Amino acid sequence: MNQKLFITIGISLMLVLPVVAFIVHSIDKKDKVKVNTGTKMYVKSSNRNLSYRLFHFTNRFFLTRNYIDKIYRKYELIYPGEQKMIAKRSIHTALISWILCTFVIVSLFFFHPSLLNASLVIILTFVINNEVISRLMNYAELRMLEQMVLFISNVRHNYHKNHMVDDAILDSIDGLSYEMKVHGQKIFDIITSNQIKEEVNKYNASTENKYLKIFLSLCIGVIEFSDKKVNGQLLFITNLENLKTEINIEILKRKKLKYLFSGTTFVTMAACIPISQIQDFGISVVPRLESFYLGRWGILSVIMIYAFAVIVYMLNQELQASNRIVIKNYNYLEKIHKNRMISRALDNYMEKNYGKMLQLKETMKRLGENISPKQLLIQRILVAIATFLLCLVIAILLHLRNQHNLIYQIDLSQNISELYHQNQQQQMEDIIKIYLVKYKRNLVTKEQIERELAHEGNVRSTKTNQILADDIIWRLQNYQQEYFHWYELVISLGIAVIAYYTPYYMILYKKKILSMSMEDEVIQYEAIIYMLMYTDYITVKDILEEMELFAVVFKKSIQECINDYNSGDVEALMELKEKEPYESFRRLIDNLIRCDMIPIHQAFDEIESDRTNYHDRRRQENEISIQKKVDIAKPISFIPAILVCAYLIIPLILASMQELKGFTTGLQGLS
Description:
By secondary structure, this protein is mainly α. 81% of the residues lie in helices and 1% in strands. It contains 32 helices and two strands. The protein has helices at residues 2-31, 39-60, 65-76, 83-110, 115-162, 165-172, 178-191, 196-206, 210-225, 235-260, 264-270, 275-285, 290-293, 296-320, 331-337, 340-352, 354-367, 373-408, 414-419, 422-439, 446-456, 462-480, 486-515, 518-532, 540-550, 555-564, 569-579, 583-594, 600-603, 605-609, 611-637, 639-670, and strands spanning 229-230, 233-234. The protein has a two-stranded antiparallel sheet with strand order 1-2. A hairpin with a 2-residue loop joins β1 (229-230) and β2 (233-234). The longest helix has 48 residues, at 115-162. The protein is elongated and about 110 Å long. The two termini are 52 Å apart.
């Protein structure tokens, strides 16, 4: 225990001392700089500078560089252009994650070191990192939406003063959070710029918030074409109110999704934590279960529980995630693809399966995945190879573990335990170990073992020598059978084949989840069109460009339509309609085609007539979509817990049945 304590203290000091040294050095260096500001401002500036310096250190350090860069890119979409704020948020998120991971490592592994706890720590570290980043990002996005509702309300109120958009925005910035102030100031700078279109394109590329993009578009529309009254009310005011309603619906959707999924991760991962305690409890109740829990089937059961926990967690993450396209880097796949032999083999495979690959390409385009079919194929092969090698390693380690258990974990039979006291039992166990080590590579008979036992005279009872010989022979036979069998190779190949198809089926799973959001996205398109259709000089291409800002499911198809629009507007829309079989979306495209003959507000007159039921329909679609996801997530979240219960109960039941059978046999022998 003292050794474990010293190891824990040493590792803790290794983690803490560099950080403390860095802080002391930074403060000491800062104290030497002369400043003319007040003490309060100085302390605040020093703290901010410390975070910034720590960010730069971790961003250059080779072990943390990619991790920090990943977080930085996520925050960059929320705080565009604010490098110091992005750096501060990134390092704070990383520190929270690292502190929680350190606590888990110390509490689960350093105080109870074992291969089982090491595997659990790796899984929990992955989950904690993912949860901390996603939760803090979702919190920042939700806070941004709530602040945007306040900002739009202020703009709407201030716009009534003199009907000047720039003045209304400038007067509405005060009193907002830092995040919204940044965006409000940037929008003000854009609409007062001399190069509005270039600045709008830069802003749309730097932020992911689609509501900010549509708000900017509404402001630009008023500045370029002026405002007008529709149905007795200013169009800009009406559009702001509609946009605010859209944001409120999105806020309610996210909050409900967060509430309903709040316990799924805990239920999934918490089931894995008490496995070590279950082993200790089972062995304390029935000592014979030590051979199960520490043997082949016990280890395989734990591996299966951990694997299911990770799979269920990842499936639930896909269900809970907001509909957004996340750009990922596949540099390692690109490097492998550049190999000539591999590239030729992939080309041959693509030619033989051209139809399937074309369909897969369309599916990944729909999902916004920037991985090509060839890269996906390489990824699947790598996953299969890694899984196959892992299965081989596990099989070999299990055989070695069983061999070790057969020699060094000896549980004397009940008959000997009753006849001899503790010291004699220990002596007999040592005798068994000596014979096992001596003959583990040789063939030997029971009679030969009995003769040697009788000749040595350590045990004078002939009956006891027979029992010991039986136990030794049984262990030797099992020991010599512990080698890699052909069927284990077949099983490893089968698991590798399953792993090969897993990335593909994960793509199909994402496609299924995304299809649940189709109707909600089409309704959002209708809301955009309703806000734009009365704007003077608005064109169908302008509407498509605004739709593309909101698009997730239909994003790639709309982008291709915009690219082909100048070569033939109706033809591009007809091609878009043919690409997308979803009926609601096709009806919307039909209305866009009709705009070639009639005004836009007439082509979409049914949207205006249906506005009374629009918000109710939108909320209902959100309810249905969320409920479908919850109906999938909650049942599968309990799979690891069910497996853990089976891991506890089934061995106890089987051991109890064996004890009962032995007791019954003993009673029959007495009668």
